[in-house]
Amino acid sequence: MIVIVDYGMGNLGSVLKAFQKNNIKAMISKSIHDIETAKKLVLPGVGHFANAMKKLNEYNYIDILNKKVLNEATPILGICLGMQLFAKFSNEGNVSGLNWIDANVERFNVTDKLKWKIPHIGWNSIKIHQVDNLLLNDISDNELFYFVHSYHMVCNNSNNIISTSMYSHEFVSSISKGNIYGTQFHPEKSHSEGWKIIKNFANKI
Questions:
Q1: How far is C-alpha 131 from the chain's CA centre?
Q2: Which of 38, 111, 115, 187 sits between 20 and 30 A of 70, alpha carbons compared?
Q3: d(CA 81, CA 148)
Q4: Contacts of 192 (CB under 8 A, 6+ apart)
């Protein structure tokens, strides 16, 4: 079973619906037992980084997530803020993240605030850096995906970058490290191409 972790910060319903529409068994859960027995995990997220880390601590999820992801190599997909939480540190609240990816999270620094609105909202293309990565299997270069974010991940290890996108400057739009995967964009809101990513995570990883 794929467990979508409910820590009070995600657009859980739309993520679950994307799995269900593609005939993939998934569930939303707050239960540590469900997380512990999950075959795969999804960490969605919408909102403030520091609040999200506070919620993960309040729900006592940190230890079980570390056990599942780092010790047992359970595949996990982070979406938007969920992906950002994999980083070492975020400027959004100046707090530490889960420290699974050697990266920091920074706010978009734009010079032309009329041209480049923050948050970055809407459809944007991706440039694929790892053509053989299973998460982006059957995804074409320059394909469009839906974004909603003011902060972005800055990876210190380029091997973790699957794709980048342009908004004022180039930024990381998807990552991977072993069993850890993440998208800055919302695959659940990106129609057929986004559903390919949902299916790739469920069936190929």
A1: 19
A2: 187
A3: 10
A4: none
